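From the shared-data thread, chain only:
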Amino acid sequence: MRAVAFRKSLPITDPQALVDIELEQPLPGARDLLVKVEAVSVNPVDTKVRRGGDPPNGEAQVLGWDAAGTVEAVGCEVSIFKRGDAVFYAGSRRRPGTNAQYHLVDERIVGPKPTSLGFAEAAALPLTAITAWELLFDRIGVKRGEDRRSLLVVGGAGGVGSIAIQLARKLTGLTVIATASRPETEAWVRELGAHHVIDHSRGLAAGLKAIAFPAVDIVLALTGTAQHACEVGEVIAPQGHLGLIEGATALAAFDAGQLFTKSVSIHLELMFTRAMFATADMIAQHRLLAEVAALVDRGVIRTTLGMVVGPIDAKHLRQAHELIESGKAVGKVVLMGWPR
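Structure, as tokens:
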């Protein structure tokens, strides 16, 4: 089967940064689905892993987590899906990636593809939907329909921000404030439902003051966290909640004393945790994605597809990685189909 991989950590402008390879088609384990991959999307984690060092022993590492496709075969203990089902999911960091024609995934982290969406539109959703959902509802504990606090989404036009805005606006009573610094990103977050938009390049405090919010109850720091850490600490309300997805480096950028004085609760989210540790509630991601699919099919939330760059091959994946690394992507970057 065809796949795209990297053997050395190289700048994305190098033709060898991502290469086309041939692999044996894998066989499903007991709880696995073998999925025929129709579309994938590219996330910042793809670029971070590619830039993070060479794979061991000169191996070819297949990247990619988001995918939408059709179940080709199932393991002997699979009970949720059957051959022919259309699915979408975000995979596991402990298994080969989705940039391959056929991919193995545990059924407990897979959802039924929204029937109203094509494969490209569906592939834009899983990783960001899981991240935003878990951060808002599982980690921070936002209540559906009854929460009247304020929410600041730093990086509203990114993949996670684009879903978080929709979930908060459609499923809760939160006042949603999103950051955006360009006309096209401001238009995007307003279209997704943000009540207010502020320009993070001009300062969070000044932007919030201009819309009569001296402080906010919940901050989702989704991108550029180290850059904005000082300002986030300034604008977050006493006894507020801070949600982080960028890891230990981002957390270290905050003034611990400032957060301690305000009794701020810090909530860390990595959507791979349940699959990595096979937690007892691992199947929660299947249920979450099934609910997301239902919300999409009812028209409550929409796909965050920004653009389709081309078919799934090394050339177009290099283009997608370069766009993600530029920081100028609006919504999700997707690849659809395989070259003939």
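The mean pLDDT is 96.
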